[in-house]
Amino acid sequence: MAAGEQPPTAEEELALADAVFARLFGAGRLQVLLDDPTIENVDINGCDEVFVSYADGRRDRVGSVAGSDAELVEQVQLLAAYAGLSARAFDDANPELDLRLPDGTRLSAVRRVTARPAVSLRRHRYPKVFLADLVGNGTLSAELADFLSAVVRARRNVMIAGETDAGKTTLLRALVNEIDPSERICTVENSLELGLRAHPELHPDVVELEAAPANSEGVGAVGMAQLVRRTLRMNPDRVIVGEVLGPEVVTMLNAMSQGNDGSLSTIHARTPRGVFDRIATYARQAEERLDIDATHQLVAGGEGGTGALDFVVFCRKTRTPTTADGTPGLRRLVSAVLEINGYDRRVQASEIFTPGPDGRAQRNHGVPIGALADLIEAGYEPGPTTHF
Hints:
Blueprint: H1 10-25, H2 31-34, E1 39-45, E2 50-54, E3 59-62, H3 69-82, E4 96-100, E5 106-110, E6 118-122, H4 131-136, H5 142-153, E7 158-162, H6 168-176, E8 185-189, E9 206-210, H7 224-231, E10 238-241, H8 248-257, E11 264-268, H9 274-285, H10 292-300, E12 301-302, E13 305-306, E14 311-321, E15 328-343, E16 347-355, E17 361-363, H11 372-377
Helix pairs in contact: 7-8, 9-10
């Protein structure tokens, strides 16, 4: 040390050691954000424009994550080279990057096509979550939790729908945890988010399949549809498609309608009934080029159902003040459940749970549940006004 300088305190030494470790082996200044368990997403529009979204719905601007945009790009390049399953380039010839970090965080970055390098981080903590937890936090009622538990045990096929960040993946995890631990589960995802293998005590027999992009030579891509077909040869008791994003929907629906009962998936949609047209849009992109009528018949089957899907569970999010200063928070809830009844020029579906006064789904007792006998056999105890 130079003469007259004070030695660093223990706290300063620890902070310096953490910074060096993060620079060499972690994510640089991003590491402190990745280590914060309350953070869900980080959006970076240049090194000094950093916005953080928290689990409680708050969104704040925080300090710089690099000394310059060039340093930010360098840090992303280091992560691309060493933090993923395989090295990937992030340069002018490869201005887009998608990467899964060792802790499960998804990193998406672009350069050259934006005024400043942009990076988005989406956290995946893989928490244990059960239907009882969702009842406890107000996402759904105890009545609906009992119903959904019986739906899973009765091996009905379910599509969870809703907008981005409405809680679809969380609900899917909770439904998967209603599956008997003895069952073999195969999951297919564009990027791993479910994280079932993180909790082997709940499901010891799990195979996770993840779509892969082509390499730098443009070969080796493995798509979702290919992976769904692969799962059918892997002796699954359940096939879980984390999120339907395109033409794989036809392969999935065919599997559901041909004996792979108890399958679960999620899809983006703005309304419960909008799910069917969203599926039809994806089916048009598939190799089979299904038109809307063929797709709806595949979804719903003939009169009386027997199609690929049995139920649609719809999630929504609302903004609500959660702090004394009125900072907007985020409330996620299940608002509706449709039962697929069959096909008559379009998908026939009944709204067996509809939004109640607080927005949460409540039983629509004027509409009978077609599968009620099977659900009762699976342990469902309907209320006195539930009809066959």
